[in-house]
Amino acid sequence: QLRLVESGGGLVQPGGSLTLSCAASGFTLDDYAVAWFRQAPGKGREGVSCVSSSGTSAYHADSVKGRFTIARVNAMNTVYLQMNSLKREDTAVYYCAAGAYCSSWYRPEVDDFGSWGQGTQVTVSS
């Protein structure tokens, strides 16, 4: 059974940091590109970051560029999202997803990723 499990979410003050993890089971994650999406209350799901299967290409949305870093450790079948300098507008449920490709030029799209985790809540508040 293919499964993705996110962890690492929580409550953090503005300016703080969190590291999200996306662990795969039932399949080899390094065969896939992996993306992080987020969905804030009342809004659609938006692509935040993605990394290619080889790890040589990565994308970060303008809203998180310079603050978030995606990284994969294929030996651990896990992809991470390091989030620094968090802002209130980063508050959302964060999802990881596995798919066919990641381009360093444009935002990952929901329809391009077929396997999804259940999400982890990130709340940025004082």
Question: What is this entry, summarized?
Answer:
The protein is mainly β.
**Coarse structural class:** mainly beta
Tell me, briefly, the overall form.
globular
The biggest sheet amounts to: 7 strands, mixed
* Count of helical regions: 0
Order of helices and strands: EEEEEEEEEEE
Unreliable stretches, pLDDT < 50, 5 or more residues? none
Number of strand elements: 11
Q: For the residues shown, what is the average pLDDT?
A: 95
Please report which band the strand proportion falls in: under 5%, 5-15%, 15-25%, 25-35%, 35-45% or over 45%: over 45%
Radius of gyration: 13 Å
Please give the alpha-carbon distance between the first and last residues: 40 Å
| Proportion in helices | under 10%
Please provide a written account of the structure.
By secondary structure, this protein is an all-beta fold. It contains no helices and eleven strands. Strands 2, 4, 5, 6, 9, 10 and 11 form a seven-stranded mixed beta sheet that branches. A hairpin with a 6-residue loop joins strand 4 and strand 5. The chain is globular, with a radius of gyration of 13 Å. 36% of the residues are buried. The model has no long low-confidence stretch (mean pLDDT 95).
